[in-house]
Amino acid sequence: LAFTRQPPRPSSLALRRLAAGAAVAAAMQNAVAAIKSLQRADPVAKEQWGTYCDQDGGGIRDPAKHDVAFLETFLANYQAGNVIPAASADDWAPLIKEFQRKSPSFKACWSTYCETYGDGKNDPARKTKEFVVQFMDYMSQQALMGYSGAAVPTQSAASPRGLVPSSSASYTQPSKRPRTDAWGSGGGAAHGAPSSGGNAYAKQSLVGRIKAYQKADQSQKEAWGEYCDTHLGGVRDPARHDANTLQDFIDSYEVP
């Protein structure tokens, strides 16, 4: 007689593992769906989820990229009414990041300030508290000038980083000091407290345009270098020249 060989039956341990894996997958799917639904329906839940991710999840807000335990911990605490405290006043890095996410104007201002008075890197976690305080103080000065009737910066898609002055009004300009080795290794101390005089935003716009011009094409970078060597004593940092000098180059070379 011919016998048909039956495949081996899964062991009870293997069956339990399969069942456990399916249960985890189902729990994960349910938790992801619950968190996404909460974020759509409840602004407070969305804010709390963002704070939770910033503090304990590496800033990653996609629930599908966390494990089920992380998701269920949030859901259990939120449903129990446990409020996650927002960052304190000293925790300025998460606050700056949150402002950048929610305000394109703030993001453009922060980026321009870092480019002009910092090391050009926008990560607030790499800045000192002093640098951030001086940035906020500078922004506050511009707001006060706006309240008093002076012109304030406006956004323009055509201008570098979206910032242009809305008129020829005078703005307070932070004094820029040469970068030191200690500053360079320390992660972004400010180059000096804001001081009076000069149209800061007008000059920042020109500096940004020339830097963008150089980055766009190697031949354009060389054109700026040749211009500096010929007319500006070899000084190639556009921030070290006055606005009229920068404007002359922009007009001569039709810098966008």
Describe the structure.
Mean pLDDT is 75; it is low at 150-198. The chain is mainly alpha-helical and 256 residues long. The chain has a two-stranded antiparallel sheet with strand order 1-2. A two-stranded antiparallel ribbon has the order 3-4. Strand 1 (154-155) and strand 2 form a beta hairpin. The chain is elongated, with a radius of gyration of 27 Å. Helix content is 58%, strand content 3%. It is built from ten helices and four strands. Helix 1 (12-41) crosses helix 3 (68-79) and helix 8 (200-216) packs parallel to helix 10. The chain has helices at 12-41, 43-56, 68-79, 92-102, 104-117, 129-147, 181-186, 200-216, 218-231, 243-253, and strands at 154-155, 163-164, 173-174, 194-195.
Descriptive key words:
256 residues, mainly alpha, two-stranded antiparallel sheet
Topology:
Blueprint: H1 12-41, H2 43-56, H3 68-79, H4 92-102, H5 104-117, H6 129-147, E1 154-155, E2 163-164, E3 173-174, H7 181-186, E4 194-195, H8 200-216, H9 218-231, H10 243-253
Antiparallel strand pairs: 1-2, 3-4
Helix pairs in contact: 1-2, 1-3, 4-5, 8-9, 8-10
Put the structure in a nutshell.
With 256 residues, the chain is mainly alpha-helical. It contains 10 helices and 4 strands, in the order ααααααβββαβααα. The strands form 2 sheets. It has a two-stranded antiparallel ribbon with strand order 1-2. Strands 3-4 form a two-stranded antiparallel ribbon.
